[in-house]
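Batch manifest, entry 17 of 40.
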Amino acid sequence: MTTTTLAVLVPVLPFLGSLAGLLLGRTVPGLVRPLAVLPTLGAAVLAVLVAARQGGGKAVQAATELTPTGSVPIDLALYIDGFAALVAVVVGVVASCVQVYSTGYLRHDPRYPSYAALVSLFTSAMLLVVYSGDLMVLLVGWEIMGICSYFLVGHYWETPEARSASLKAFLVTKLGDVPFLFGLFALAVDAGTFRITGILGAVAAGGLDHPTLIALLLLAGVAGKSAQFPLHTWLPDAMAGPTPVSALIHAATMVAAGIYFVARLLPVFAASAAAMTVLAVMAAVTMVGSALAALAQDDIKRVLAYSTIGQLGYMAGALAVGDRGAAVFHLLSHGAFKALLFLAAGVVIHAAGTNSLAAMSRMTGLAKRVPDAYWTMTVALLALAAIPPFAGFFSKEAVLVAAEHTALGDRTVAPAGAGWIVLIAALLTALGTAAYAMRLWLLAFHGRSAEAPDLPQALDSVRAGGTPARQPIAMNAVLWVLAVPSLGFGLTVAYLDDWFDGNALTPTVTTAVLGTGVALVGAVITYAVWRTLRTHPPVPAGAPAAYAPTVAHPDAEAGQVEAEALHLPHPSEDPADPGRLLLGPLHRHAAVGFHLDAVYDRLFVRPVVAAAGLVRFLDREVVDTYVNGAGSGTKGLGWLARKAQTGNVQTYLSVLLAGSVVLAVAAVVLANVNAGS
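Output type: structure tokens
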């Protein structure tokens, strides 16, 4: 079987699994899990075979005309270089892990058949984006992912949080997709083709007439899809969906699509120094802001969501300094450890019965009750904090090295100013990342049994050392599978040069010392503050909070626990939470995402709602008045005509005679008038 055939089957298999799951899920429930897992697993195996055959060498290409357009043609094209081959492997592996994990996490969920089919379709769409050699075909996968995210984030549609989160994710990403679509059309007009190879050839020949406009339009779509400032606000709210969906969206599919798109077309963006500077500023603000916000979150999944935004900022920063190898390298390693973080968080939420770190910090022995999640999440957090020799260290160092080279003028793809912006922001973010990673680890797994006034009695058995039902083996096994690349993928750095652009990805002494040093400082300071607060907790102001339920049923299955935890109130803050002391007066602003949602509400939502209200008023009170008046007038004339129809012959004759007399008199009068004139 040729490499091209194998590549075609990679996105087709999960699509067929999705279609079969939707058709047979209700009628033959026994086939739901095999149809969810096997096609996705098969796609992952085929993606590995395609990567092995491609080998980082010459790109695999194939194309056939999809439809004649009369102008710019649209081709069904494949373009698989080293980037595409490796990204497809990560997508396939993470999606397979998510499907296997979901068989245990949502095993009794009545909507599991549709959920599994949507996950397969989601996977197929991302693989189409990765392998596509034509931008219009890529756009199809791009938009399918948006639709799937709407349904998957809103899986627990009974809760208002899930409904609003799914709608917000759809609308915010569509806000970016509109200029993105115009950018694609403008790019095709300038280049004369939608084919990626043709576009890159046109850029090399200086054939783009409006590079800055095109790049900025495309960046709007990338900001929406990859959750970059200012269109990042949908991603933390998307945590209302099931945890496996969060892992899929954050690690390997939707949010990675924007970064991958820019990497594919980096010469288009590099043709405009202004666009590269805008990308650098966008990445810097995203990195630093998300690190501060993550340090203030109480929901464990929202901490990880802001973490994803920050790590995507690292990737965007690498692209802003012109090194797509470093960006995709971090995308690959991030896909492994972020999927592990979310899936381990799902196990922790199941065991604790809550997604609140403040509630977990009041539990004793949570680490002993979920040892698999504890150890694997520790590995993932070390990778996230970029501690050597974990995967995140090598990939994050590649970003720092790229920024350093651009800042010092060793690489001229992007302005030196962009390099300094990215380098400084990346180092600050490394400090914040280690701080919130340490905070999460301490609050989730090293809680104390000190009494809290709002600690529910449901936790008495937990505090007494009770052991809830162990998580299904499918959930725990997946964690160890993902722990392997989270720990060891970075060690392959010396062998990845040929798969990318040939630029060295190995760390330098300067960046390694700086990056690791600031990460250790952030972690040590957070630990020291936590120890101090735990030993000498501050006296809370005011009376203790009243009792409020904060924990769902810890003996229920994982999906039910998470669905219940969505709408349960969180307990009062933990006095030993180091985030509040570290952030100081910024804490209350960081906890709500620096009020960006409120700003957007005043600038966009309220004016749109007011305009809609005005249109509604005009339609009902003005337009409808004329329409209803015409109908009422006709009805009145009909009523008068009906009154004249009495059925009395004498009346008809009297009216006829009176009418004749009137006509006769009118005729005489008119005749006299005419005669006198």
